[in-house]
Specification:
The complex is a heterodimer of chains A (about 80) and B (about 625). With about 80 residues, chain A is of the alpha+beta class. Chain A has one domain: Ferrous iron transport protein A (FeoA) (SH3 type barrels). Chain A is about 15% helix and about 40% strand. Chain A has a six-stranded antiparallel β-sheet with strand order 1-6-2-3-4-5. The termini of chain B are far apart. In chain B, helix 15 runs parallel beside helix 25. In chain B, the strands form three sheets. Chain B has a seven-stranded mixed β-sheet with strand order 2-3-4-1-5-6-8, with helices on both faces. Chain B has a two-stranded antiparallel ribbon with strand order 7-9. Chain B is elongated. Chain B is built from 26 helices and twelve strands. In chain B, strand 5, helix 3 and strand 6 form a beta-alpha-beta unit. Chain B is an alpha/beta fold and about 625 residues long. Classes of the chains: A alpha+beta (about 80), B alpha/beta (about 625). Chains A and B meet through helix 1 and strand 5 of A and helix 3, helix 7, helix 8, helix 13 and strand 12 of B.
Chain lengths: ~80, ~625
């Protein structure tokens, strides 16, 4: 993670591998944040964008903690990542 | 369903099954109980709780409750609410379970243990079934069960539900834990599980705990399957994925219309044969008329649909269990978001093609209240299978089977058009509702795409058995009652001897129909249609039986003409089109309203469904009839 800048998960292209550096609270409900945590979106976890929807590339499917989770790009932006 | 309850006087041990969605919980339930379950109404996949009994080797009865799959006890969806209430003993109808049976997908330990640890924090006796152990081992899981159980602090049993592996060990362990729990209860008089809404710190701590335990207990975690990746390459591909989805839907509908035909003909023939037998054995009179024109005509016209409904449910169960359904929701999310809905709303709407009842119940998995309500409100607009008979009848009678292009014929095209207009209307109403009284922030999507699995045919069969039973039960109760009532209304009072005209016009039904006629005349409906529409409000499929009853009774010589031929002579094309539109739009289903009432906990929403759909239907039929007459179809 040497000095690489933080980006939002929702902006990543398919195939990108990244590591979660934090979850933003601003603009997102605390419930959403809890939900993400329950699904395993924790700081330090590695995450990869595996699929994009054929229609406008949204939603995306990411692999995390051995499962595949679909979420919309706008909401994936709650997750800050560092590209690996 | 007697499982020798009388053998032991003691109260059965109450066990609650808990786990994430897609962890094979229902399959495990089936393996343990042999599939004999008491189900509430129309289960979605596990929408309603199922209850079953197991008799252990030592003669103790375990009562198993299969709770809806959930990711936590935070109760954001009605499904999770039920789960939480039952586990904590808040549920009004049942006592707190003696033992919790947590089910975890062994291929996804990293995530599924989170919920298990949350359950552990409740302090109740707990047993963990590590399900799909065979798959996990195939994918390279190297696990020390003893270490896992020691670190978790409760028994862990590996299971393979479809092969019944680990089931005996599981029941033994559950029984042991229950006895321990009972002793504990006596010693400490009362343990009530303390529960607070967990904060973020607890959730994070739990995941750290998982990592710690897995580091001790495993040498290698299962890999994500190559197969799932390969299939997804195609199924979620920008072009192939969309084509595949269209192909799947087209195949399902094609199959429903063609494959179901043969068994439907058998049922039709058997009912016809039964009618003949009754004609021969029972002398002409009120009893014969009641059995043939009332009971057989009414119930028979509904039972004919059983093959179609079962086939559609079979496809839905197969798609769900294989893991494709959530991919379909993923693909549809963009479109659904455009009308303000959640990608997952696709599943209730698709189920509504079979029947709005499981559709409305499946909406339980949608978190956002407004989203869920919108889905419930529009589900009855999707063309359910109960509409099919009237579509088939009217199309066959009024639409010429002209070839349009290649295998494409006008009749088929009209059928597709009717389905399509239902969908368009539903989406349109969703936009309107979301822009008016259900305004609010768009929903969020957070959905697991499970690995693909070959569905267990036995589980699908058991699911179908339950649905078939419920359907027949309904035909034998609601529809039977309505048919007999209608027959009575259509038969009495009898005309005085020598009076002209058909007998039915003197009956109560005839009088009621005539009274309603001015109201439905602008729609092109005659009094007979009005009569048949009245019981049709209880359930759509009764309308056909009612029409048959009304027309069979109308004829003095007895029903030798087929209904289709009769109405083709008597109605105009404009009337037929108008009635088709009425059927697309009207909410003629008492059960739909009842389930909407149960799901929304209010009378307001079912009342709203009835009013808005009837309004739409009246308006739509009015327009159709008036326009058709103007262009010369009157």
């Amino acid at each position: 993670m040497n000095g690489k800048s933080k980006v939002r998960l929702g902006t990543l292209k398919r195939g990108t591998q990244a590591r979660i550096s934090g979850i933003q609270l601003q603009g997102f409900s605390s419930e959403w944040r809890t939900r993400l945590l329950e699904m395993g979106f924790l700081e330090g976890e590695s995450v990869q964008v595996v699929h994009e929807s054929p229609f406008g590339g949204d939603p995306i499917a990411v692999r995390i903690r051995g499962s595949m989770i679909a979420l919309r790009r706008s909401e994936a932006n709650a997750i800050e990542v560092v590209i690996e | 369903m007697n499982f020798g309850v009388s053998l032991n006087q003691e109260k059965p041990i109450e066990i609650a099954l808990l786990g994430n969605p897609n962890c094979g919980k229902t399959s495990l339930f089936n393996a343990m109980t042999g599939g004999r379950a008491k189900v509430g109404n129309y289960p979605g996949v596990t929408v309603e709780c199922k209850e079953g009994r197991v008799l252990t080797g030592s003669g103790v009865t375990l009562s198993l409750l299969d709770l809806p799959g959930s990711y936590s006890l935070s109760s954001r969806t009605p499904d999770e609410e039920i789960t939480r209430d039952v586990v904590l003993g808040f549920h009004p109808d049942r006592s707190s379970p003696d033992v919790l049976l947590a089910v975890a997908d062994a291929t996804q330990l990293e995530r599924s243990l989170g919920f298990v640890l949350e359950l552990r924090d409740l302090g109740k006796p707990l047993v963990l079934a590590l399900n799909m152990m065979d798959l996990a081992l195939q994918r390279g899981l190297d696990l020390d069960l003893k270490v896992l159980s020691r670190e978790l602090g409760f028994p862990v049993i590996p299971t393979v539900a479809p092969r019944k592996r680990g089931i005996a060990e599981l029941t033994t362990e559950l029984q042991k834990e229950a006895l321990k729990g009972r002793d504990l209860k006596m010693a400490q008089s009362q343990i009530s599980p303390q529960f607070q809404k967990w904060g973020e710190a607890e959730i994070k701590k739990r995941f750290l705990e998982i990592d710690r335990i897995l580091a001790l207990a495993t040498r290698c975690l299962p890999q994500f399957t190559v197969w799932t990746d390969r299939i997804d390459q195609v199924v979620l591909h920008p072009i192939w994925g969309s084509l595949f989805l269209i192909f799947v839907l087209a195949f399902v509908f094609q199959a429903i219309f063609t494959w179901a035909q043969v068994p439907m003909d058998w049922i039709k023939d058997s009912i016809g044969f039964l009618g003949e037998v009754i004609h021969r054995k029972i002398p002409e009179g009120p009893l014969q008329s009641l059995l043939v024109d009332g009971v057989l005509a009414g119930v028979g016209s509904v039972l004919v649909f059983l093959p179609q409904i079962l086939l559609l449910f079979a496809f839905l169960l197969f798609l769900e269990d294989s893991g494709y359904m959530s991919r379909a929701a993923f693909l549809m999310d963009r479109l659904m978001a455009r009308v303000g809905l959640h990608g997952r709303a696709f599943i209730p709407l698709l189920s509504s093609f079979a029947c709005a009842i499981p559709g409305i119940m499946a909406a339980r998995t949608i978190e956002n209240r407004r989203d869920r309500l919108t889905t419930i409100l529009i589900s009855p607009l999707m063309t359910c299978s109960a509409r099919l008979p009237i579509y088939s009848l009217l199309i066959a009678a009024f639409i010429p089977n002209r070839v349009i292009l290649g295998p494409l014929r006008l009749q088929g095209l009209v059928m597709v058009g009717l389905y399509f207009s239902g969908v368009v209307m539903a989406l349109l109403m969703a936009v309107i509702f979301r822009k008016s009284f259900l305004q609010g922030a768009n929903s969020v999507l957070l959905m697991e795409l499970p690995t693909y699995k070959w569905p267990n045919l036995r589980d699908i069969f058991l699911g179908l058995l339950n649905r078939g039973k419920l359907f027949i039960y309904r035909a034998g109760t609601v529809i039977l009652t309505a048919s007999i009532l209608l027959w009575f209304l259509a038969s009495y009072p009898k005309p005085l001897p020598g009076e002209p005209g058909p007998a039915i016009s003197y009956s109560l039904a005839g009088q009621l129909g005539r009274w309603l006629e001015p109201g439905v005349k602008p729609l092109g409906f005659n009094w007979k249609i009005a009569v048949a529409l009245i019981p049709g409000f209880a359930a759509r499929e009764i309308m056909l039986g009612s029409l048959a009853t009304v027309y069979a009774m109308d004829e003095k010589e007895g029903g030798s003409h087929l209904l289709g031929e009769r109405i083709a002579k008597e109605w105009s094309v404009a009337t037929a089109l108008s009635l088709l539109v009425w059927y697309v739009l009207a909410c003629q289903c008492f059960s739909t309203l009842a389930v909407a009432h149960r799901e929304t906990h209010s009378l307001r929403w079912p009342a709203f469904i009835l009013v808005y759909m009837t309004g739409l239907a009246y308006f739509g039929s009015f327009l159709t009839y008036q326009i058709s007459v103007r262009i010369g179809l009157g």
